[in-house]
Write a structure and sequence with these properties.
The chain has 291 residues and is of the alpha+beta class. The chain has helices at residues 3-8, 13-18, 38-42, 50-55, 78-87, 99-109, 112-134, 167-177, 205-217, 240-250, 278-283, and strands spanning 24-29, 32-37, 69-71, 136-143, 150-156, 186-190, 197-202, 229-232, 253-262, 266-274. The strands form two sheets. The chain has a seven-stranded antiparallel β-sheet with strand order 8-7-6-5-4-10-9, with helices on both faces.
Length: 291
Amino acid sequence: MATSECLSTLPTKADSFYNNDDQMIKLNIGGYCYTTKRSTINDNVDDQSYLSLLIHNQTKTRLNSNDEYFIDRDGKYFRYILNYFREKTLQLPENFTELNQFLSEVNFYGIDCLKNEIENRLNRTNERNLYVENGLHFTLISKFNQKKTIVKLIGPLKLLSFFPIEIIGKHFLKIISSFNDPKDILCQLTFPLNEKLISCEPFDQLQRFVLTKQARKMGLMVSYCDDYFYIPIEHEIVSRDELAQVFLNKFNGKILNANITQDDSTILVENWLLTIQSDEIYSNSSIKNVH
């Protein structure tokens, strides 16, 4: 083998520079300065994303006199991106209202996993806004049989207030209310057959983590993968028809639409709207005694 061919296979100084995971990367994003390890970026982005191309010197952007990469974007959002890389979860301030702007920044950097998380949050935020503006919306799913057994409710966690939950469940809701209003926690409630339990699965990943952790701390049953937790109830769940009468007579309930699906069994899916204020709904204790 020729000497020139042997030399061409050896790593160059530039190769070592761009593949050193411990190297510190400095970013100046619209005047906001950030410092992180090269590995923090490499481990969280695709090879063809903007940040990966940037730190591998495959864009027109070069280090400035301060050894920084300057990016002409809104830098205040990048802190959340960097924390997402480090913590593997999206942590935003309470009442964060700039999801659309944040999504625009994430799209620019090409971070697909974070993009999906933000889009999910936007969808849930839009649903929450609908509850606040127009009343309480939720979906009631029941078996279309003689008993009209309730299978599932999809809506805010406060829907638990419609059922005779045991004292520990009420205490759980009280603790949760101290840091997050249960009517802002969208979840799926299911009813295991012949069990005096309600299974609660929050849609939001962070809320799911916090609530299952609190449930476990209080001795409530939690699923193996910490996806959902169980709230015990005093007696069997009311039928669909009994619950519907409560919605109609006490809370000006309206069925917006209903569909019957047939798979292994016949299922009735109803979208409901309670037109009075949600705070009034949850302050009415009489509904807790319906059975």
